[in-house]
Amino acid sequence: MKKIYFCLPAILTSVLQLSAQDIITKCNGEEIEAKVAEIGDTQIKYRKYENAQGPLYTLPASEVFLIRFEDGTREVVTPLDAPAVTPATAAETTETESSTTAPAAANENYAQINRSVKKTKEPLRDKHFHIGPCAEFGYAAITSKSGNISGPVCSAGVIAEYMFDKMSPHGAGAGISYDMYMFEEDFDLNCMNMDLYYVYRPRGRWNCFAGFKFGIPVKSEASGVDLKTVTNTAVGIEMGAGWATRHFDLGAAIFMNFNSTLDISESNRMVGVKLRIAYRF
After folding, report:
1. How far apart are CA 176 and CA 214, in angstroms?
2. Pair 256, 236: CB distance under 8 Å
3. Residue closest to 61 by CA, chosen among 77, 84, 37, 38
4. How confident is the model at residue 215 (pLDDT cuts 50, 70, 90)?
5. Virtual CA dihedral for 33, 39, 43, 44, nearest 10 degrees?
6. Closest Cα partner for 234 from 264, 211, 210?
7. What is the DSSP string of the chain?
């Protein structure tokens, strides 16, 4: 029991030492544990709490919002809602030029803080629904039991996207396009293609999407291939990512069809990569 009584003064002394410090809160939210030495009109002088006998540090008063002293009292150095200093008010004041520099600098800092806060709260977009043209250029290959063929592919169409909320990066999209596959000299295939996809558009300058493709052949220029027999629909998946603004997209995508329209009697696979350009009104 005596040991407890002997320990109590030591514990109380430690607690008092921990609480015997000043807290400097800057306008950007940063806190500094210190022992404040001087509060001036344009600057605050302090020593670091862990080195109370160390060197003296200086902060511009315009960067300090609040000081909480060790006795619990508080002093607001630079109010966050300080009014802007205009030439008219500056002419009317009787303070020196050095004393008016701090409020001006503080107002500039407040404007920067307000812009940051506004940026985090402003909507990602001005509306939910977007529609616009889309063009794609790439290279595709078909693998089958009878052999492999490959060649360039290009498409042009229209996309439409619906974002679930103006503050949310999530949305759904659909597109319809005319695709032209120029595989080899003896085989060209044109399809009407429809895409259904999920899109993710965060605040940064990028986006990504993933979804399904559905293609129906509408024209074939191939020796020995009758378009009437090419009736199966190409079903596949597609995913991509790239650079984006509020209205413009530039990115790359990869796609794979589970079955192609080359020959319905064989198990064919079409894979490819393409550059994607889109504009959303």
Report:
1. 9
2. yes
3. 77
4. confident
5. -10
6. 264
7. -HHHHHHHHHHHHHHHHHHS-EEEEETTS-EEEEEEEEE-SSEEEEEEGGGTTS--EEEEGGGEEEEE-TTS-EEESS-TTPPP--HHHHHH--S-HHHHHHHHHHHHHHHHHHHHHHHHHS-S-S-SEEEEEEEEEEEEEEEETTEEEEEEEEEEEEEEEEES-TT--EEEEEEEEEEEEEEETTEEEEEEEEEEEEEE--SSSEEEEEEEEEEEEEEEEETT--GGG--PPEEEEEEEEEEE-SSEEEEEEEEEESS-SS-TTS--EEEEEEEEEEE--
| Confidence tier at 233 by pLDDT (50, 70, 90) | low
**Which residues lie closer than 8 Å to 178 by C-beta, 6 or more apart?**
155, 156, 157, 190, 191, 192, 193
Record the tokens describing residue 13, joined without a space: 């002394």
Q: How far apart are CA 54 and CA 154, in angstroms?
A: 70
Cβ within 8 Å of residue 106, ≥6 positions away: 27, 61, 62, 63, 78, 82
pTM for the full predicted model: 0.54
Report which residue type is found at 204. G
Q: Please report the pLDDT score of residue 19 as a whole number.
A: 45
What is the phi/psi pair of residue 99, to 5°? -75, -20
Q: What is d(CA 248, CA 134) in angstroms, rounded to the nearest whole number?
A: 10
- Which residues partner with 134 through β-bridges? 157, 278
